[in-house]
Amino acid sequence: MVKRVVPNRRNIAGFLKSPETRALIERKTRAAEQAATAAAKADGWQGQFRVDVQTGEHRVRGAVIGDYSTPYPAVSRRALLRALDAAREVT
């Protein structure tokens, strides 16, 4: 006999759009932005990153958007990759 797990989509959607989830995503996104700024500054750039957190129809999304102080995408990408651990550590 095979048992199936049927997800409760309404509860999942409610969780993904809850104020608590938004606050967690905001904290993690801000931590990543601060760490990316520090990484870019260590490389000699200003580290002008932007944070965007939106509550959509189905979930909350957070993004750290590139370093506006450099014309080189590789510099921005390197700083963002080094910042991922900072977001991982935030609870």
Radius of gyration: 17 Å
Order of strands across the main sheet: 1-2
| Main sheet characteristics | 2 strands, antiparallel
Structural class by sheet pairing and helices? alpha+beta
Strand content: 5-15%
Flag low-confidence runs: none
Counted by DSSP, the helix tally is: 3
Topology overview:
Elements: H1 9-16, H2 19-42, E1 50-55, E2 60-65, H3 73-89
Antiparallel strand pairs: 1-2
Helix pairs in contact: 2-3
Keywords:
single chain, 91 residues, alpha+beta, two-stranded antiparallel sheet, 3 helices, 13% strand
Could you characterize what this model shows?
Strand 1 (50-55) and strand 2 (60-65) form a beta hairpin. The chain is an alpha+beta fold. A two-stranded antiparallel ribbon has the order 1-2. The protein is elongated, with a radius of gyration of 17 Å. It has helices at residues 9-16, 19-42, 73-89, and strands spanning 50-55, 60-65. It starts with 8 loop residues before the first helix and ends with a helix. It has three helices and two strands, in the order ααββα. The longest helix is centred in the middle third of the chain and has 24 residues, at 19-42.
Short description:
54% of the residues lie in helices and 13% in strands. A two-stranded antiparallel ribbon has the order 1-2.
